[in-house]
């Protein structure tokens, strides 16, 4: 019974938190906990203490790795551009597609939030439609609300 149960009449009686014919399946979900506090990052099921990712794009022990996904910066670039500067690919659909984050304008790059704050933070440097660089940070607070700080 793999040390997780007692064999009685050739049948394993599993200790609490174990199941399976040989008690080799842990019901503990802690190994499946992703960094965002969700089981398998909300993209899979925890089976025997291992994530089975249901979204094929995501892999890894907690379904957090995505080789084909855009980074945070590229993903939000168009919305930051239309909200902050009223231009870019989403200029016409900005009000419908880009109101999902709180936006704060700052005067210069040194006024952007810096690493070391409690919320995960991405520093972004992207090119706009006029081939100029613009800078912003993207973070998600403890309430799950996305916050963007953009240099004017």
TrEMBL record:
The keyword Glycoprotein applies. Keywords: Disulfide bond, EGF-like domain, Glycoprotein, Membrane, Repeat, Signal, Transmembrane, Transmembrane helix. One of its GO terms (molecular function) is C-X3-C chemokine binding. GO terms for biological process: cell adhesion mediated by integrin; cell migration; cell-cell adhesion; integrin-mediated signaling pathway. PROSITE patterns: I_EGF_1, I_EGF_2. The keyword Ion transport does not apply. GO terms for cellular component: cell surface; focal adhesion; integrin complex; synapse. InterPro entries: EGF_extracell, Integrin_bsu, Integrin_bsu_tail, Integrin_bsu_tail_dom_sf, Integrin_I-EGF_CS. Residues 73-152 form the Integrin beta subunit tail domain. PANTHER family: INTEGRIN BETA SUBUNIT, INTEGRIN BETA-1. This is ITB1 protein. It comes from Oreotrochilus melanogaster.
